[in-house]
Amino acid sequence: MQRGISVSNTPGAVDASTANTAIYLLLGALRRVHVPATALREGKWRGAMGLGHDPEGKTLGILGMGGIGSAFALRAAPFDFKIQYHNRNPVAHPSNNPTNATYVGFEELLRTSDVISIHLPLNDITKGLIGREQFAMMKDGVVIINTARGKIIHEGALVEALEQGKVFAAGLDVYEKEPEIHPGLIRNDNVVLLPHIGTATLETLVRIPECD
To answer: What is the pTM of this model?
Structure first.
């Protein structure tokens, strides 16, 4: 404690709840769940719902295989994804790669993944990491999930990719300038939006003091 300010580090305390939120967003984005869910509340039953996608057999690319990334991989594995990941370096210990996911380069992950889920810290290297150039590398119809930090994705570029159909759908819990959200994301029915609630569970709040 310095100048009356208490600082703590709680590694692992938020891994489960954030990974669970990412799974929710992943499944919701694959099914473009916002459209029928909104229509139902408006008394329109399914509304203008189109067909979504099943996860089985698709390639899931995880950017950042730290505590949250590995917890997410563990939860995604039962859906029969082919899981690959990218870190600055391959993870050294098997416990940090519980699904035996394949390590690939950054650009290879972008080019070959059907779903890309971001679990990176925000720093000078990762800020703006995903922009127009990176979206252009991705498969047509890719699904984007972000529960890490909003500034890792250039939101304007994501909106363009969604409007052009390059990105099939996105699931977001974090934003570039939160609580402000790009109006292009708000108006796009193919985006599942949450207000940064990835760690907002009673169990997580109980765990945090235990990890201090």
So the answer is: 0.92
